[in-house]
Input
Amino acid sequence: MKAVTVISSENLEICEVPIPEMKNDDDILIKVKSGGLCGSDIHIYHGHNKSATYPRIIGHELAGEVVGMGEGVTNLSIGDHIVIDPVISCSNCYPCSVGRHNVCSNLKALGVHTDGGFREYIVMPQKNVHKISKDICWEEAALIEPFTISSQVLSRGEVTEKDTIFLMGAGPIGLCILQGIKRIGAKCFISDLLAQRLEMAKSMGADLTINASKQDVKKVILEKTGGVGVPVVIDAACTNETFEEAIRLAAPAGRVVILGFESSPSRIAQFDIVSKELDVRGTRLNNHRFPAVIQWFNKKEVDAKALISHVFHFTDIKKAIEQAEYNHDETCKIVLKFD
Ligand SMILES: [Zn+2]
Ligand SMILES: [Zn+2]
Output
């Protein structure tokens, strides 16, 4: 079978590899049907993810069909449509023991620390496999994982319908978070540098869009909040500057939720956190959010299709990456298909 393999930084090939074998009773053999191309896949390709190891089959936003299973598998049948939770944890460490397995001390994220799913077949243990309705099309199903990121962000931010949120960044993840916020019924201000993205945000229910390339973000936010700032700021733009701005624009007693992997330090004064007694929280991957998010999809509470701008065959992944990198303005979510 074919697999998208990053052999080393900047060196990506479609390799011929054996179909994986089921080794344990709870293993499931999956025919991969669709996969979302994520910024983090592209970072691994460019060698920008410090924790990734090579060679690596990338891909962690995956949907597929059950084609084989071990004797210990319950609740699934051959032919079922499924999605894969990419969080592989040890069950024994401190974070696992307190119910935070997504930051397991021995975390293996699919497609980062262990081979991912941009290949024709993959074997996963039952606990990472979740059944979905056959009414959800394959392209949409590939977006269930990014929506679990949204669900995790909202959980970390303890967002309720009474909150006003300032969301920085209207890229694919930002727009998933926006849809999650609107699903709860909270108010959302959103900023981005691209007018097209802000148009999408508006059509998904954003209460206020701010073009950070033209408008003074701080001024607009303070105007809209009577000079107080926003109870919840979510930084999905993930630059040093947006992190600093997030701290400045949070209201006293507010929460700041950050998603970035930038390793260089931001300039943030202790006073800005302490004087407002802010909660600054990181959010990573998802903590058992798949069952809830699958219900969002089953009940059509979110519109994943609205995020998909392009579909490529997985063997054309280099074209897909070029599309994402060189036609940034007109590209939102890219989905790879495997048939
Ligand atoms: Zn992703
Ligand atoms: Zn663990």
User: Anything to note?
Assistant: DSSP finds eleven helices and 18 strands in the chain. The domain at 2-146+286-337 is CATH 3.90.180.10 (Quinone Oxidoreductase; Chain A, domain 1). The chain has a mean pLDDT of 97. The chain has two domains: 2-146+286-337, 158-282.
